[in-house]
Specification:
The protein is mainly β. It contains no helices and ten strands. A hairpin with a 4-residue loop joins strand 7 (71-76) and strand 8. 35% of the residues are buried.
Length: 125
């Protein structure tokens, strides 16, 4: 099991940038895909981006259409950390952001771990 702690959220003006971090513990971190999800006020939690296990058949990234071209997911296996670089933020990006782990290496993942506390991102107009 991978234990996850999100950080890096905050308040930013539209057009600004934030970088979220997800620190993970677990022996299998480098072998599984990781993903970012978000939950906006009054809405369900939705997929944002995923990244496959580096060096495996699951390598690659997938982005939701709403963030494509603005957000970049990356990972540093040496630090057991996955990142979400968010540029050109929009008010509609306001949400609590969560990370989670897949059960395998493929970027086409579904979350398999328990949800952490998330980190709040608020984008003002």
């Amino acid at each position: 099991q991978v234990q996850l702690v999100e950080s890096g959220g905050g308040l930013v003006q539209a057009g600004g940038s934030l970088r979220l971090s997800c620190a993970a513990t677990g022996r299998t971190f480098s072998s599984v895909a990781m993903g970012w999800f978000r939950q906006a006020p009054g809405k369900e939690r939705v997929f944002v981006a995923t990244i496959g296990a580096i060096g495996g058949s699951g390598a690659g990234t997938i982005y939701a259409d709403s963030v494509k071209g603005r957000f970049t997911i990356s990972r540093d296996n040496a630090k057991n950390t996955v990142y979400l670089q968010m540029n050109n933020l929009k008010p509609e990006d306001t949400a609590v952001y969560y990370c989670n782990a897949g059960s395998g290496p493929w970027a086409t993942m579904t979350p398999s771990g328990s949800w952490g506390q998330g980190t709040q991102v608020t984008v003002s107009s």
